[in-house]
Protein 1
Amino acid sequence: MDIVRLLAGRQYRLFAVVQNGSVQVRDFIDSIEEQEQAHFFALFDRIIEYGPPKNTKKFRHIGDKVYELKTNGGSRILCFFGTNFLKNSLILTRGFPKPKPTQLRREKQKTLKILNDSKNLRIIKI
């Protein structure tokens, strides 16, 4: 599985999963309203400089080593913590608008599949 580095700061690095030559998280962010984009960019800046927020309205564990980044408007990005050579990193996997419970479960399962294959992550440049 390929990943691409999105941002790096003093404390953390953010990577995104590449599937079929596309970065779904980047495509999702490009598709949402500017206000929602600004919320995510502020959250990303905070994470790379200081680490993940303690505020569970912005960043929370949803089980099985999967976390979600949230905006006030309800948009979500699922992620997990990097290991081994990716310490102090978050791997962003899926972005989507405010979900219904069944969609959140489906998206979490997709993220778990990537997490289970995370030993084979390879950093590429796009």
Protein 2
Amino acid sequence: MPRPALTTTLLSLALLTACSANGTAEPAAQSTAADTAAVAQDAGAQQARETREIGPFSVETVASFDEPWALSFLPDGRLLVSEKPGTLQLVDVATGRAGEVTGVPDVVYGGQGGFGDVVPHPQFADNGMVYLSYAEAGDGDTAGAAVARARLVADDAGGGALEDLEVIWRQVPKVSGRGHYAHRIVFHEGMLWIGSGDRQKFDPAQDMASNMGKVLRLNDDGSVPADNPFADQGEVAAQVWSLGHRNPLGVAFDGNGQLWDIEMGPKGGDELNKVERGANYGYPIVSNGDHYDGRPIPDHDTRPEFNAPAITWTPVISPSSLVFYSGDLFPDWKGDAFAGGLSSQALVRIEFDGDRAWEAERFEMGARIRGVRQGPDGALWVIEDGKDGRLLKLTPKG
């Protein structure tokens, strides 16, 4: 459940209305739930939200959520936030108030599985379509990532419903285990791109009979573009744009239309890759990290036939997300990328010069960072990982 960043006054109001532990307001004798919601909305709109300073940022706490995983802005400025246990919230960022969006698919929750990414269709203003990724149950104890699309219909209470939900893509095959779904999604020039993790099974990243451990390119209905690099192979191989990936948790296009992915390495060796058509990035044959049991993996420079990363991190940052900045609030950072860091508890700024990239700055956030987006006004918006993960708005300090 989302929780606005409330003042003491609003907390008192919540106590007076005897909110239950699950967040459902139970009206007092002289009040209705509708009255309470109206008072809360007014108070939320007027509250002075908690603000602190971190490095160059003024950091405003907007709301908190139950294991938030992804955030994405709609054209009207409202924000969609997915919660890993299987809920979708529609947020009024001016007040921090959120309403649940019903009709989401069932998810397999546990480990790294659950509700994943959420993005609007590029023509959302006309078609109202949103795209969702999540962990889907298979036979027995198997599971795999899936992507569905549906029409978002908002309601008067601040939430809404998904209608006409259709699954348009699935990982093949479904396997046991609860790790490395990845399932980050992004649109570019009308095409849907998916970062598909290797599900901790290693070999699928090099196996063209599987779409795991790959970056995929699809039409917006899930069909395969005829000009994909492996289209002539048919089956799931036709979906593949690049292969040899491990756990690509961030996929984003720069201002020149170039795709980059950021992914978790094994023990060491997190990677930022310039993703090129038909390229093989080598995992699990090569990596700049090693297996968790200590067995070495040959580095990229031992096998030049594989594309090497633009950056590797050892010790790791545990990247969770990636966005390129194009706003005006931080003009010196236009064209830079920002990556969320989980174990590093940081927001990492990355600079570029052609094919070269490097970590320029690391901002210690004091919490695991699950997602980062640029807002319509050029602010950076961040969600923290875990229960009570906060939604933060980052603007220039001073």
